[in-house]
């Protein structure tokens, strides 16, 4: 037996529908009595300029069930609001007056009224053609971006909806007078936890009159209404402000990425891999130490669209995406306001390790992006666990593993966090996923010789002083890079905790203990080079201790041979950073001890696991610390509930300006040096017909064009050759001044030498 409603209000918005109104009402009077015991039919004339109103009034005179309401033209949304307001029965149905829907299909909606509050139709196939389908798709994207509109709703503006009057009483008043009326209605109902059902309905071509839904006026009005509606959803408005801020940063930096015409560090291998992937050869380079596939496949797709030279643009997009996601995590899950969320993300972006990796095709920021994405997904899952969220989260875990092996251990941290939260079932399943990751890595993944050489070394733990030294080094780096957050945390703890004297004493003891054990010059790491040799890299006795990117004279100082030029006060600056890092680290350890219960456990477990892995790593570069900087930041923010209070914001802005200035100096210098060297090397090779492996340019050039005989003709260097030491074969070709606005370097020259001896040989 077909289900019937007790009482039903039906209304139709009308604008210039003189050819449709009579068959529309006839159809309604034929179908509606079969669907309900009591009903009313309302015709809402929205300022029609044809005979629509006249015809509607004539119909109403002949049938008491039909009512006519006429108003000045207020738009489609205005007509719907009038209908919602006048409808008096428990259920309200509306459809357009253009006869594009079969009113008899209302029965299909009524069948779902037992357990739902809104039953909305969706068009199985649209009858208006590609243009309207495109507009519908764009509206869905627009709604998602603007309002985080629920994705499960298939057809937002389908004019075939059955709604409880109770729902309308709760969501009214509605603000929109245009095409966003359905968006506003459904979003408000969704936020109030009303239940939805969706039913496929037939859609036909309009027989009479013209549609206005795809006019430019309607579309422009929808854009204006979006801005207005955001005032109703202030949190979403703030969220969009955060997104637009990062979009502005992307636009600002986009031209810089386009100017990267060089390779740096070991990314020459990454470029080589992408070129290989484009030929559908997915074998990893023997000297590649990272899992790389996620980054490589992204690079392959991007290179196929824009060329392999576009990798710096992709990396910038990924880098901005990573700090954007970090800002979203802080804003969404840790109640950090928009401005401090943005400034915190910007603070990470100008970190010298992150900023360096934002230009080119290094792996670090790709890993950070997928780490941030997986953390965002995990926090959403932990808040309200579902199977779908669990699958998405672990897919992101796997993608992060596909960039670097560090991603293996994120599922383990998640398992421990779920266990701590007493979600034992999910914890055990997550641990099983971790075991799967490990087995996959060691028994399925095609490991390279470099990966075998880089396997973990438990023997590192036998050297107790070495372990303490490494922990101290990690702590100093993290404290220097997260100084404003640690300072704010300590400040807030001092204000609220009476045990301050005990914590200060503990800090002094920790400082004495670490200083007594601290022997960085005795720490060595192994590194396999392309020539197959194993080198031992000694840690510097002064900060920055770890080599590779962040040095006292800039970034990647070893890029060129020779003693690099300096800037005034560099020695004192890094001395202050080192001392500050030491004290901030021990103070943080002491102060966090009394706040362990409040700390965010996922990032705590992740940080501890990650540091444990670094302790037994056979080699270590400073850029490997970036993930623990990110997890440490979230951990500290979870403790201090970072807000826009004056002290915290002042400290953050002050240190942000410092790192922004230093990052600008180091980045501008490094970019200009590399742009000059690569451009000049290409010029020499082309104009003088010199083989590229006969030019000693920067590190990547030499690795890309190896020369086993070492008989290179041209040499770039930071320092002028001493002819007494180097011999008379070398003659100076040119000295190039590295200069840019506000350059603080002294005598910043790059020298090019010609080796006559290599030619004679």
Structure, explained:
The strands form 4 sheets. This protein has a 7-stranded mixed sheet with strand order 3-2-1-4-6-5-7, with helices on both faces. The chain has a 4-stranded mixed sheet with strand order 12-13-15-14. It is built from 29 helices and 15 strands. Residues 528-533 have low confidence and may be disordered. The protein has 761 residues and is α/β, with parallel strands linked by helices. The protein folds into 4 domains: 5-232, Alpha-Beta Complex (Spore Coat Polysaccharide Biosynthesis Protein SpsA, Chain A), CATH 3.90.550; 233-445, no CATH class; 454-644, no CATH class; 667-760, no CATH class.
Secondary structure blueprint with pairings:
Blueprint: E1 5-14, H1 21-31, E2 36-46, H2 52-62, E3 66-71, H3 76-86, E4 91-95, H4 106-110, E5 118-123, H5 130-147, E6 160-164, H6 165-171, H7 181-191, E7 196-201, H8 216-229, H9 234-258, H10 267-278, H11 293-306, H12 311-333, H13 338-349, H14 352-357, H15 364-383, H16 387-401, H17 410-420, H18 424-443, H19 449-453, H20 464-481, H21 483-496, H22 500-517, E8 524-528, E9 534-538, E10 550-551, E11 554-555, H23 570-593, H24 601-615, H25 626-640, H26 646-687, E12 695-696, H27 699-704, E13 714-717, H28 723-726, E14 730-737, E15 749-755, H29 756-760
């Amino acid at each position: 037996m077909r289900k019937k409603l007790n009482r039903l209000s039906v209304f139709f918005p009308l604008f210039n529908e003189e050819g449709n109104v009579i068959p529309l009402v006839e159809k309604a009077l034929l179908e509606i009595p079969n669907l309900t015991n009591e009903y009313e039919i309302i015709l809402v004339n929205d300022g029609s300029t044809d005979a629509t109103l006249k015809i509607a009034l004539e119909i109403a005179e002949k049938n008491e069930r039909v009512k006519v309401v006429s108003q000045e033209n207020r738009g489609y949304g205005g007509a719907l609001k009038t209908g919602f307001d006048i409808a008096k029965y428990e259920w309200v149905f509306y459809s357009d007056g253009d006869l594009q829907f079969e009113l008899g299909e209302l029965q299909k909606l009524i069948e779902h009224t037992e357990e739902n509050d809104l039953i909305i139709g969706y068009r199985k196939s649209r009858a208006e053609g590609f243009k309207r389908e495109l507009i519908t798709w764009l509206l869905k994207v627009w709604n998602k971006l603007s309002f985080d509109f629920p994705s499960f709703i298939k057809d937002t503006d389908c004019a075939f909806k059955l709604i409880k009057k109770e729902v309308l009483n709760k969501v009214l008043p509605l603000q929109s007078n245009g095409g966003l009326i359905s968006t506003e209605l459904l979003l408000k109902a969704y936020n109030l936890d009303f239940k939805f059902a969706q039913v496929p309905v037939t859609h036909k071509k309009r027989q009479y009159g013209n549609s206005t839904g795809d006019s430019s006026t309607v579309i422009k009005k929808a854009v204006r209404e979006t801005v207005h509606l955001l005032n109703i959803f202030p949190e979403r408005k703030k969220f969009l402000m955060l997104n637009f801020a990062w979009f502005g940063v992307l636009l600002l930096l986009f031209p810089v990425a386009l100017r990267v015409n060089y390779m740096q560090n070991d990314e020459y291998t990454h470029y080589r891999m992408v070129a290989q992937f484009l030929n559908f050869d997915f074998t990893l380079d023997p000297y590649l130490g990272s899992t790389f596939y996620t980054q490589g496949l992204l690079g392959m797709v991007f290179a196929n669209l824009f060329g392999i030279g576009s990798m710096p643009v992709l990396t910038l997009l990924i880098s901005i995406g990573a700090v954007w996601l970090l800002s979203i995590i802080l804003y969404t899950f840790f109640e950090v306001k928009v401005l401090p969320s943005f400034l915190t993300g910007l603070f990470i972006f100008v970190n010298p390790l992150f900023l360096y990796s934002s230009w080119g095709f290094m792996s670090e920021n790709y890993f950070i992006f997928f780490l941030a994405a997986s953390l965002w997904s995990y926090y959403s899952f932990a808040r309200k666990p579902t199977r779908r969220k669990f699958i998405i989260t672990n897919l992101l875990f796997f993608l992060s593993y596909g960039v670097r092996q560090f991603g293996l251990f994120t599922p383990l941290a998640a398992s421990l966090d779920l266990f701590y939260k007493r979600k034992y079932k999910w914890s055990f399943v997550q641990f099983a996923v971790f075991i799967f990751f490990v087995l996959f890595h060691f028994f399925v993944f095609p490991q390279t010789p470099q990966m075998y050489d880089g396997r973990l070394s438990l023997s590192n733990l036998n050297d107790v002083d070495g372990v303490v030294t490494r922990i101290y080094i990690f702590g100093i780096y993290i404290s220097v890079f997260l100084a404003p957050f640690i300072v704010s945390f300590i400040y807030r703890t001092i204000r609220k905790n009476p045990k301050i004297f005990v914590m200060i004493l503990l800090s002094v003891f920790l400082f004495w203990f670490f200083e007594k054990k601290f022997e960085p010059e005795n720490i060595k790491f192994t590194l396999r080079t392309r020539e197959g040799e194993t080198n031992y890299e000694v840690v510097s006795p002064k900060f920055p201790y770890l080599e590779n990117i962040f040095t006292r004279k800039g970034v990647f100082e070893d890029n060129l041979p020779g003693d690099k030029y300096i800037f005034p006060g560099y020695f004192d600056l890094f001395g202050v950073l080192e001392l500050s890092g030491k004290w901030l680290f021990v103070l943080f350890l002491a102060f966090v001890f009394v706040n362990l219960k409040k700390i965010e456990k996922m990032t705590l477990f992740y940080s501890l696991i990650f540091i444990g892995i670094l302790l037994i790593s056979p080699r270590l570069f400073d850029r490997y610390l970036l993930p623990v900087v990110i997890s440490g930041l979230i951990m500290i923010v979870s403790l201090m509930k970072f807000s826009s209070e004056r002290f915290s914001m002042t400290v953050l802005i002050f240190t942000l300006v410092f790192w922004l200035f230093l990052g600008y100096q180091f980045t501008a210098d490094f970019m200009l040096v590399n742009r000059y060297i690569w451009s000049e090397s290409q010029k020499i090779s082309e104009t003088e017909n010199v083989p590229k492996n006969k030019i000693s340019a920067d590190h990547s050039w030499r690795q890309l064009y190896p020369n086993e005989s070492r008989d290179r003709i041209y040499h770039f260097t930071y320092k002028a050759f001493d002819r007494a030491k180097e011999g008379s074969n070398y003659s100076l070709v040119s000295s190039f001044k590295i200069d840019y606005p506000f350059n603080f370097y002294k005598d910043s020259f790059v020298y090019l030498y010609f080796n006559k001896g290599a030619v004679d040989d």
